[in-house]
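Read as amino acids, tokens; as here:

___
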Amino acid sequence: MVGTERHIAERIFHDQQACQRAESFRIGAAQLTFAQEWYLDHETWVRFAFGQLGELRGRHVLDYGCGHGMAAVTMARAGALVTACDLSPGYVHEARQRALANGVAVECVVANGEELPFAAATFDAIWGHAILHHLDLVKAGRELRRVLKPGGVAVLCEPWGGNPLLRFARAMLPYPGKHRTADEQPLTARDLQPLRKLFGHMELYGFQLLGMIRRLGHWPQLLRVLDGIDTQLLNRWPSLKNWCRYMVIVLRLC
């Protein structure tokens, strides 16, 4: 499935997700508001990844594939001038409502991540969470580079496919949030080659090596221990990041 057919399938899938969220949450102000600290700490990589964006106050920032809009609200709370875009009108609606409920200004736009409707050199920074693995990275990379200002940074957090045991588990084991579109697959180092060529400067940070077992259950004390071990292992042997569940990708346009 390529081109327009793939985009239509992605939009339908995520519109259905957004609709299910709206029905299950009965979305109103109470369901749309959230604590900043909770969002930054709800996954192990989020606070670190936001730190890679640098100072946000007064800067123009794109939430690329905004989904539910929590990242957009978080950046707006930090003083950024935020534009949020997504292929799914349903998710763009939720992001817009979430911004209103939290009292921040976010421009929300329906847009294809491979054909962004923004002028060149519009944004100082770009944030993306679980978006690249839905896209053609040659097309998406060109658009990210085009809309990013010289000296800008793009921080993209993605499920990672370098661990064959994890690939097997993803395919065979049941776990919450497993549903996905037919074309999406976790990224690998090979997939990132177009981005490396386009930007030149790329940094990769792995998260959840042993801590990936959190996808199978909730064991707070055990996970704190495993996350601490992960930090020590990855600091000592950075190449182990290829076996992690998630990767933070930092691109800088010099």
Observations:
- The radius of gyration is 18 Å.
- The first strand starts at residue 60 and ends at 64.
- Residues 3-252 form a domain with the Rossmann fold fold (CATH 3.40.50.150).
- Residues 4 and 10 are 10 Å apart (CA to CA).
